UniProtKB/TrEMBL annotation:
Gene3D superfamilies, sorted: FAD/NAD(P)-binding domain
Coiled-coil segments on the chain, per record: none
FAD-dependent urate hydroxylase HpyO/Asp monooxygenase CreE-like FAD/NAD(P)-binding domain span: 12-184
Species this protein is from: Streptomyces griseochromogenes
Top-level taxonomy: Bacteria, Bacillati, Actinomycetota, Actinomycetes, Kitasatosporales
Protein name: NAD(P)/FAD-binding protein YdhS
UniProt xrefs under Pfam families: NAD_binding_9
């Protein structure tokens, strides 16, 4: 492709939740000319991904968590609820959603999140600074090569207006100054289903249009086997039950873990609990370590029940798991890698159940169907060994459980979203090529995701940045665990993506602004000279950070420009700060970069809830209860 661009390009590979959230932030943060190219290989996944696209989410699929926690902006807690109540186009919505007044603690259908993201992306595009443009393209990135000036990305089936020559079925080369990988979940092919992958009675992906159609068309008396008991399994079972299913539904779970129902009026909260000190002792063996975990866990849960009577018993485990996150990196550091991987494999589902529950809308129908014991939904604890076709057209499911063998003959088998977290096993050309080139390296400690630095930049085999390539979302699972203590799906879900999109977008914009004039060196020298920023705070730095926080969080271009002007005035008035360049222009740019980094740290502070964050930043308003 000929290079006629006069502004830098950031290529985002994947236009689902992570890619869209990052594009929104780039559109907001960029102050100079920038082309943001948002590439998606599946047009139906654009601004949605597998979890939210309309065709794979019927109206009865609701968010696992409350609607009030679904804002794509961490600093604007109720944005999604406001949009659903006052901006969403409800023409064509069925009951009860068409007339529902959405509440912070209530449910919301997952499929409307795609419309929400589309509209917020369009708004960010309208309110971007002059010269900041968004290009949405269909196509698949299959290879990358790092060059001195950026990254050459090979794409297939590229289609978009404004990209110049090279569109069509042949491979096309795109050049970008920075690439953001937001590729989402990768499917794992279950070995037990090798004989039935293409069988009409087997659903490999329950969030596909074909999978939903099979569930919807199933006779009410049919026998169904659902492999897994995580929250996605409840979506499939709930869909069947709400359409009047009376036949047996078998939830087959390796661990038998069932998720909790959030209590009515539940609000996310963060408690300060003592560090589980015994977990920081040397790791001896699995049995001894698990005994320490159980002891510390029971002590912590008892302390919450005793000292925080306002916490509903149903969410005590969630409060403890969240409170432990700051201490987990120190705990994990003491566990050998092979042992850590084994613990994660064995307890990942249980960890997820401790860390998150589900709304009553989803859980109530499942729990009713499991009571009495002869209800239509049955939990079978065991491991699926094989699924094979029978002469009758049904599928025979063999399950090993406690030394016994169970056989279920089902009219439909649903294999819940088994994802591949080991990128050395992912079959997509992009990942095979990135690993082959040493641009991406599987996460060594956990075997989950990729090696990245603290800013999300991919690291090569030597532990150094492989190039101007960042990751957002699922590829950062292992790093989120060992760096930030984020467990279960919280290592890659909306909560993490909110923070990662802020940090990556700010890093990319800052890197592009620093190009070519040695200012990066000045930034490093300044940060080394100021230390804990106390001297800077005396010179007015704190006010500059507050202004930058508000600029980053503001949706209106006019207001951002006003805040940017005030920030410039504040920086020019600073006095008595050491280690600053003598040149006024370089001095001002440096202070803007440093203020930006401090503002990003505050916006991504996970030690507080989003509502607490707004209070701390002086951004709370009257529409938020308790503010």
């Amino acid at each position: 492709m000929s290079r006629t661009r006069v502004c830098p390009r950031v290529l985002i590979v994947g236009a689902g939740l992570a890619g869209t959230a990052t594009a929104i932030r780039l559109l907001r943060f960029a102050r100079g000319p920038l082309e943001i190219l948002l590439l998606e290989r599946r047009s139906d996944y654009r601004s949605a991904g597998v979890a939210y696209h309309r065709e794979g989410n019927p109206w009865d699929h609701v968010f696992n968590i409350q609607a009030g926690r679904m804002s794509v902006f961490r600093e604007d807690v109720l944005d999604f609820v406001r949009w659903a109540n006052s901006e969403a186009d409800r023409r064509g919505w069925p009951e009860p959603w068409a007339e529902l007044e959405f509440a912070e603690q209530g449910p919301a259908p997952r499929r409307i999140f795609q419309d929400y993201l589309i509209e917020r992306l369009a708004e960010a595009r309208r309110e971007a600074c002059p010269g900041v443009v968004l290009v949405e393209a269909d196509g698949e990135a299959v290879d990358m090569e790092v060059r001195p000036a950026g990254v050459d990305v090979t794409t297939c089936r590229l289609s978009a207006s404004g990209l110049g020559a090279g569109q069509g079925p042949e491979p096309t080369l795109l050049r970008a100054e920075h690439v953001v990988l937001a590729t989402g979940l990768e499917l794992r092919e279950p070995p037990f289903a090798a004989e039935v992958v293409t069988h009409p009675s087997f659903v490999r992906n329950p969030y596909s249009a074909a999978g939903v159609r099979k569930l919807a068309a199933l006779p009410s008396e049919a026998t169904v086997a659902i492999v897994g008991s995580v929250l996605s399994a409840y979506d499939s079972a709930g869909l069947l039950l709400r359409q009047g299913h009376t036949g047996s539904i078998h939830l087959i779970s390796r661990t038998g873990t069932m998720f909790r129902t959030y209590p009515a009026g539940h609000e996310h909260g963060v408690l300060r609990l003592p560090c589980p000190k015994t977990l920081l002792e040397p790791y001896r063996n699995r049995e001894e370590f698990l005994a320490r975990v159980r002891s510390e866990w029971e002590t912590a849960c008892s302390a919450v029940a005793r000292d925080h009577p306002g916490v509903d018993p149903a969410v005590i485990a969630e409060r403890v798991a969240k409170a432990w996150e700051p201490h987990l990196p120190g705990v994990i550091e003491r566990i050998p890698s092979s042992e850590l991987r084994g613990l994660l494999d064995e307890f990942s589902t249980a960890i997820a159940a401790f860390r998150v529950g589900a709304v009553e809308y989803t859980m109530a129908v499942i729990e009713r169907a499991m009571r009495p014991c002869d209800g239509p939904v049955k939990l079978l604890v065991g491991t699926v060994e094989r699924i094979r076709p029978t002469e009758s057209g049904r599928l025979a499911v063999s399950v090993a459980a406690s030394g016994q063998r169970h056989a279920i003959e089902a009219d439909l088998v649903v294999s819940n979203f088994g994802r591949e977290w080991d990128y050395s096993r992912v079959g997509r050309p992009l990942w095979r090529n990135l690993l082959r080139r040493g641009i991406a390296v599987p996460h060594e400690r956990t075997g989950r995701g990729l090696e990245v630095d603290g800013q999300g930049t991919l690291l090569g085999p030597g532990g150094k940045p492989a190039g101007p390539i960042s990751a957002v979302g699922v590829p950062r699972e292992g790093d989120e665990l060992v760096r930030n203590g984020r467990t279960g799906a919280f290592a890659f879900n909306l909560a993490s993506i909110k923070n990662q999109s802020i940090a990556v977008a700010a890093h990319v914009v800052g890197r592009l602004e620093l190009r070519g004039d040695g200012l990066a060196r000045d930034v490093a020298q300044f940060l080394g000279g100021v230390g804990n920023m106390e001297e800077a705070a005396r010179g007015g730095f704190e006010e500059a950070v507050v202004l930058e926080v508000r600029r980053l969080a503001t949706r209106s271009r006019r207001e951002r420009e006003m805040l940017d002007s005030r920030l410039g005035d504040r920086i020019r008035s600073m006095e008595g700060i050491p280690a600053l360049p003598k040149d006024a222009s370089r001095r001002d740019r440096l202070m803007r970069i440093v203020a930006n980094r401090a503002a990003v740290e505050r916006l991504t502070d996970v030690s507080v809830t989003p509502r607490q964050l707004r209070r701390q930043l002086g951004m709370a308003n009257a529409e938020e209860p308790g503010d």
